[in-house]
Amino acid sequence: MKILKVICVFLFILTFILPTSGIAEQNEKEESRELKDVVVTGTREKKTRFETPATIGTIKEEEIAETKPAHPSEVMRRLPGVHVNATNGEGHMTAIRQPITTGAVYLYLEDGVPTRSTGFFNHNALYEVNVQQSAGVEVTKGPGTALYGSDAIGGVINVLTRPAPFSPEIEATLEGGSYGYIHGLLSAGNTWGLSGLLGEVNISHSNGWRDGTEFDRQTTKVRWDGIIDDKSRLKTIISFSNINQQTAGTSRLSKNDYLNDPTLNYTPISFRDVKAFRASTAYERESESSLFSIIPYARYNKMDLLPNWTLTFDPQNYSTENKSVGMLTKYRHDFKSFNSRAIIGVDLDYSPGSRFEEEIDPTKVGSIFTSFTTVGTSYDYDAAFYGVSPYIHGEISPLERLHLNTGLRFDYMGYDYDNNLSVVTTGTHRRPADTTVTFTRVSPKFGATYDFTKNSNIFFSYNHAFRAPGQGQLFRQGQAENTVDLKPTKAKSYEVGLRGKALQKLDYEISAYHMTKEDDILSFRNTTDGTRETLNAGGTLHRGLEFGIGAAITKELHLGVSYSYAKHTFEDWSPRTGVDYSGNEMTSAPREIGDIRFAYKPSFFNGGRIELEYERLGSYWMDDENTTKYDGHHLLHLRGNYLFDNSGWEIFARIINMTDARFAQAASFSQFRGEEFAPGMPLSVYGGVTYKWGDKK
Q1: Please, what sign has the CA dihedral across residues 679, 85, 116, 164?
Q2: Residue 248: its pLDDT value, please?
Q3: Which of 310, 504, 599, 651 has the fewest CB atoms lying closer than 10 Å?
């Protein structure tokens, strides 16, 4: 922390001194290139990152193309305070201003449209989106509820789609690697007159590096862009993903097996099959001072799952399914006075769905679950989620250098629940009676930026956020006395930050946040038998410091640093009489998350590069009692690509975990099971070739 304080003071001094020192005079476009990046997630409108009173991390299309990620974690960790682990295939858990969690505290978007309904959240959302062929990713850290509604507590992740190319273009990538990994990408598109079309295919297969962890994924997407007239345009996106995997994922091993036999998988009978379909059409009509937008959408999601993590205490095999129709509408008007702007809108969502769950009796040989038989039906219900959410957002600049914005959103949402089985009020699989559950919430926000110079500013934000319980939390009662009356999680967040450019070659951003959550929905694990219950905690506290820089050391050598230090604690949680975790740190909550990248881009690589990456995840508690810690880990990765000048050909390779370090993607401890670790992938090598026909930009 002392080092970070020194860095903060140093950069703060640079903010004021360097712009007036006359060093390295360059044209304005060059010196403010990074700061003027346009983002859309923070306000639902195009804004420069410099004008937005929030910490918005951006991963550009060029960075994704250079990195060639096999898993979204390989690019997401480049953002300060963002950790995405790799469970199995492209499965993941995320930590953004929260512990590493499967909890529904993040909102995943594709071009601003939620990829799933609030009621049917999936923490593996990024494998339903085509990150590898995207136009970039924007991550708004912290609450985004005032604009986006429920789910947006830890952050908003918006994956941007690529538009159709202006001229005929075909791009193909074929890649292979360790453990039977095969990956293919194909895209083709063109523009004819006022209409353009782009089609994409993303196919991958892996045998898995652990026993019984085979993975297959197929994703297709089509985007059509059309211009109606000089003021109106249309964009239609249709996508489909099919994922089939055996889910060792974060299946833990005993400490002995983790250290000595990490390929072992106790749960090879587990699986996850996912189908995700989305279609949306965005219509925009823009005049000199106003814009009207309407986006109707439809979604279909189905997941069949035999979870590995419940086999020892609550073995189940279940299926969830839901269909969605919705609409996002907004109107924006700009005013000449004080460079002000007003946006009003309303979001509508209707998502009927169902859950069917069977209790199973697994067969175990030694430590391995080898098969199972069905015992009976535990749950069979229909749950229709609905939401109506009007909002207003305003911006004004009372002074040339001072920019203010504020917003307010009202959410009315709920569920119509129908139990297709009998009501059960005792035991481990209790079932509530038919009911209707509703939630209402008003979420305000306020933000400000002040420009010290054209290349440096400070920002402040205050945001409310909430998360309505999902259908599984409400109606899959388990052994809890009452889940239907679960309260929404509510959060308040303060953030302050400093960002700028120094020496014309150094971009930096520092932010500090303080977030409190009330009625946090947590899973209480009974340490004597491993069973779990879903409960509202009294309160949790999340605070931290995030720091990122990008520096061109020379024309050919570039440095990127991302670092965060955070502390996540239970402020008030006593789940049982005689059990009080208040004051303890939350489990799976590393204090440190870091990533450092050195890239060498020699001219004779024709735009290619060699990059060495250092990844750091700090230690964290493995249990709520704070008795046992995971030490964290350090990893090194190496990647490179070479472009054959003007031929359209590119070759690339990467080595992940190049020192073959033993590390855990997840770790836990209980008196019932002891220390357990989900091993991360050992040294893995990948290589491939890309050919692009068309514009060689």
Answers
A1: negative
A2: 65
A3: 651
198's tokens: 């782009």
Residue 94 gets the label, from left (phi > 0), alpha (psi -120 to 50) or beta, of: beta
Residues 6+ apart with CB under 8 A from 564: 80, 81, 544, 545, 546, 547, 592, 593, 594
C-alpha 115, offset from chain centre: 12
Contact 175, 184 (CB under 8 A): yes
Question: CB neighbours (10 Å) of residue 181?
Answer: 19
| Residue 22 structure tokens | 């006359």
Instruction: Decide: pTM greater than 0.85.
Output: yes
Q: How many CB atoms lie within 10 A of CB 567?
A: 12
pLDDT at 20 over 90: no
Q: Is 128 helix (H, G, I), strand (E, B) or coil?
A: helix
Separation CA 13–CA 10 (nearest Å): 5
13 near 5, Cβ under 8 Å?
Answer: no
Task: Check residue 60 and give its pLDDT.
Answer: 94
The total of other beta-carbon atoms located within 10 Å of residue 442's CB is 11
The per-residue pLDDT for range 513-563, each reduced to its tens digit, is: 999 999 988 777 666 555 677 788 889 999 999 999 999 999 999 999 999
Q: What letter does residue 31 receive in the DSSP assignment?
A: H
| Res. 123 pLDDT band, cuts 50 70 90 | confident
Q: Is the distance from CB of 223 to CB of 197 less than 8 angstroms?
A: yes
* CA 223 vs CA 157, 199, 228, 232: distances in Å: 20, 7, 16, 17
Question: What is the pLDDT at residue 88?
Answer: 77
Q: Are 324 and 280 in contact (CB under 8 A)?
A: no
**Between 245 and 25, whose confidence is greater?**
245
Work out the pLDDT band at 12, boundaries 50, 70, 90: very low
The answer to whether 205 and 182 are in contact (CB under 8 A) is yes
Span 272-283, average pLDDT: 96
CA gap 311, 370 in Å, rounded? 11
Residue 240: count of CB within 10 angstroms of its CB: 16
Q: What is the 3-state secondary structure (H, E, C) of 519-558?
A: CCEEEEECCCCCCEEEEECCEEEEEEEEEEEEEECCCCEE
Q: Using alpha carbons, list the distances in angstroms from residue 253 to 223, 256, 308, 662.
A: 43, 8, 12, 13
State the amino acid at position 490 in one-letter form. Answer: K
Q: Which residues contact 579 (CB under 8 A, 6 or more apart)?
A: none
Query: Can you tell me which residue has the tokens 């004779």?
Result: 604
The C-alpha atoms of residue 425 and residue 539 are separated, in whole angstroms, by: 28
Measured from the Cβ of residue 279, the count of other Cβ atoms closer than 10 Å reads 16
pLDDT in tens, 579-600: 899 999 999 999 999 999 999 9
Answer whether 572's CB lies under 8 Å from 584's CB.
no
Distance CA 416, CA 407 (A): 30
CA separation for the pair 635, 463 (Å, rounded): 35
Structural tokens at position 43: 């306000």
Query: Residue 163, Cα to own-chain centre: how many angstroms?
Result: 22
Residue 108 and residue 125 in contact, taking contact as beta carbons nearer than 8 Å: yes
184-188, 519-523, 666-670, range with greatest mean pLDDT: 184-188
